[in-house]
Amino acid sequence: MTAIHFTLNGEDRSVDVPPEMRLIDLLRENLDVTASKKACGIGRCGACMVLRNGTPANACLLMMWQVEGTDIITPEGLDAVPESTFVRQGLIEENAFQCGYCAPGFTITLTALLRETDDPGEAEIREALGGNLCRCTGYHSIIRGAVRAVTLKAANALPGD
């Protein structure tokens, strides 16, 4: 067992875990933080996406020793990230998802994109979402929701942003 210290959704955490434990397992099985989904387990679907120091990361590929000293934001913590408001509103307005299983991962990825890029175009959106899979929608509504989120962010930008 190893003591791992990190920030989870703005709260300092310290856990004693095997260093090779995966973050997704700690979140879901030990901390009851379940919005990030445990799906493929090999980093191909994006359902387990979290922000690690502001960058999207697959929680199924992060070993706890890699989490030491980092800032982790799960879908539950997105209220603290202003860009997530636009992402969620855009996805809702475009009825982006059917079952919703993949929605948390897409939301994390799009939130990171809007934090990094002021006005991403459709090509940049598609590239950013390359690691997120949806088996229900066919992606058209998700892309429309992402484009809508960009429009909402631009319309609500404060002078000097």
Describe the structure.
α2 (82-93) crosses α3 (103-116) and α2 (82-93) packs across α5 (140-155). The protein has five helices and five strands, in the order ββαβββαααα. Strands 2-1-5-3-4 form a five-stranded mixed β-sheet, covered by helices on one side. It is globular. The chain has two domains: 2-74, Ubiquitin-like (UB roll) (Roll); 81-155, [2Fe-2S]-binding domain (DNA polymerase, domain 1), CATH 1.10.150. With 161 residues, it is an alpha+beta fold.
Which structural class best describes the helix and strand composition?
alpha+beta
Mean pLDDT: 95
Q: For the record, what is the CATH homologous superfamily label of the largest domain?
A: [2Fe-2S]-binding domain
Rounded to the nearest angstrom, the radius of gyration is 16 Å
CATH class of the largest domain: Mainly Alpha
List keywords for this structure.
single chain, 161 residues, alpha+beta, Ubiquitin-like (UB roll), DNA polymerase, domain 1, five-stranded mixed β-sheet, globular
